[in-house]
Design a protein that fits this description.
Length: about 550
């Protein structure tokens, strides 16, 4: 069928555990979502992406699914989900689910059955004999544990898990597995769900003989299971057999992918997916991953954004984001401590006015920041714990904790700050995770009333993004790619343009307006400083952003 309504909408990601507790047990849930749908509408969003809501033992908070066709009782169960879906649709908010099909939980029925060597489910996963001396079948490493293989004494073989040992990789080469996945997709689409965010989707096809990773490729982040031999074939099959029959869209998570490679998934007459999430722009303050920190580089950020904007222009559609549940809060990374509010707003304008569909992660619209914890035992995330264990093999514990404090995914997973009061208004009960003490300053209730808040800036920005054809369709051009503190780009649509001028400095910043803009009639359509409108060419104030429309 193919649709393009997703091009006109801004999506909001809900990581349910920390969004809002409605049942009073300290864990976020769908009752809480029901309460907050009007808030989301007031923000102007047109779609929700739910991180996994399925039953799960929570080794990786839902990304270890034990039943694909149900909603976890922790989140209220399937009837409440139906209510959320109905109410969201009444408000013209689309709903997409996280489709986690690269792996299942080890507590999924399929895996439990596959433990028996003679079971027809054995081939749903990668069960292999080890090498001599009890060694794993190959040298693949895992993101969340030591190696990518675990030995199962009951059946005498190892099973493959690229992530946690409780997240077992599915063998997509088995046609029965693909049929089961299609059933899952239909189950939700028939219920009225509007599409999927597809988890680590570029990892679903492994080369037949599971060859060892080569060191020189692995250090560059290149792995044999990444964009494996049949990934396009399987995604095409899902599209043809299922997705094409519904008015829905898909966005795939594609770790480390280059824009060129991304095109093989999202361009052409019958693309595998509608969009992919790239990662390059999340590396402006690190090498590959947040756990290898570097000083922030605006040039690197602009290069990353620019390469995607250029490569996809006219051929495919971008998925724009600066935050999700896998990355620390952006204001604590690319923003300013001193000018936190200004920088939270400036960052928002910088990414959301590019070409593509913007995604906002819960709390980002409030300017929520990182929350460093003083002891490793206080962290909950499995990646954080495993990174700590790996780190302390080479580095002093204190230093590793410092890196963790900056890099941990838990920074993004603190409860959403609804009020400045008890538990930030997230729950009546003791919350499952620590509340960031800065909720006194950054919370929805106070920000709602303050015309100058980050929240109200997001509202205005989303209004602009969803009402301007230039913001939707204009061509992107970076006007100062080499400048270390200025981000200035245009979006051009015929004779008209939007001009985004943004300072990444904590000091006043002079800049030169490109010739073609000088003396032209320009209207300031958005800015993060109140008061009198400045001259277009006047120096930018610390972390100032100005957006002009030129007719
Ligand atoms: C994706 C998810 C992440 C999860 C991983 C394994 O990267 O976004 O949260 O841990 O896949 O499912």
């Amino acid at each position: 069928m193919g649709c393009d309504w997703y091009k006109d909408r801004v999506f909001y990601q809900i990581w349910p555990r920390s969004f809002k507790d409605g049942s009073g047990d300290g864990v976020g849930d769908l009752y809480g979502v029901l309460e907050k749908l009007d808030y989301l509408k007031s923000l102007g969003i047109g779609g929700i992406w739910f991180s996994p809501l399925y039953p799960s033992p929570n080794a990786d908070f839902g990304y270890d699914v034990s039943d694909y066709c149900d909603i976890s009782p922790e989140y209220g169960g399937i009837d409440v989900f139906r209510k959320v879906l109905k109410r969201a649709h009444e408000l013209d908010i689309k709903v997409i689910l996280d489709l986690v099909i690269a792996h299942t939980s080890d507590e999924h029925e399929w895996f439990k059955k596959s433990r028996d060597k003679d079971s027809p489910f054995r081939d749903f996963y990668f069960w292999r004999r080890g090498k001599a001396g009890g060694k794993a079948p190959n040298n693949w490493s895992s993101f969340f544990s030591k190696g990518a293989w675990s030995f199962d004494p009951a059946s005498g073989e190892h099973y493959l898990h690229l992530h946690h040992s409780k997240q077992v990789d599915l063998n997509m080469d088995n046609p029965r597995v693909r049929e089961e996945i299609k059933k899952v997709m239909r189950f939700w689409l028939d219920m009225g769900v509007d599409g999927f965010r597809e988890d680590v989707i570029t990892y679903i096809s492994k080369p037949e003989d599971l060859p060892d990773d080569l060191f020189f490729r692995a250090v560059k982040g290149l792995r044999f299971y990444d964009c494996g031999p049949k990934v396009h074939e399987y995604l095409q099959e899902f599209r043809t057999d299922v997705l094409d029959h519904y008015d829905c869209f898909t966005v795939g998570e594609a770790p480390m992918i280059s824009p060129k490679k991304a095109l093989s998934f999202v361009s052409g007459p019958h693309p595998d997916l509608d969009m992919v999430f790239g990662f390059k722009h999340m590396e402006a303050d690190c090498f590959l991953k947040e756990y290898l920190p570097l000083p922030f580089s605006l040039r690197k950020l602009k290069r990353a954004f620019g390469s995607w904007q250029k490569a996809l222009n006219g051929r495919a559609w971008n998925a724009l984001y600066l935050e999700n549940h896998d990355h620390p809060r952006v204001v604590s990374r690319y923003g300013s401590k001193r000018y936190r509010k200004e920088s939270a707003k400036a960052l928002a304008a910088c990414y959301m006015l590019q070409q593509g569909t913007p995604f906002v992660f819960q709390g980002q619209e409030l300017g929520m920041g990182n929350m460093p914890l003083d002891d490793i035992s206080k962290y909950e995330d499995c990646l954080t714990k495993s990174a700590y264990e790996k780190g302390i093999r080479f580095l002093p514990k204190k230093l590793v904790l410092k890196i963790i404090q900056r890099a941990s995914r838990d920074n993004a997973r603190t409860p959403v700050q609804w009020t400045g009061g008890r538990n930030a208004g997230f729950s009546e009960a003791e919350p499952w995770f620590f509340v960031n003490p800065d909720h006194a300053k950054f919370n929805a209730e106070d920000e709602d009333k303050d015309p100058d808040s980050v929240l109200n800036f997001y509202r205005a920005l989303i209004r602009l993004r969803t009402s301007s054809d230039i913001a939707r369709d204009g061509d992107y051009k970076d006007l100062a790619p080499l400048h270390p503190r200025l981000y200035m780009y245009e979006r051009r649509l015929g004779e008209r343009a939007l001009l985004v001028i943004c300072s990444f400095s904590d000091r006043p910043l002079k800049f030169r307006l490109p010739k073609e803009f000088r003396g032209r009639a320009a209207k300031l359509v958005l800015g993060n400083y109140g008061g009198e409108e400045p001259e277009m060419t006047s120096a930018l104030r610390p972390r100032e952003v100005r957006v002009y429309e030129l007719g």
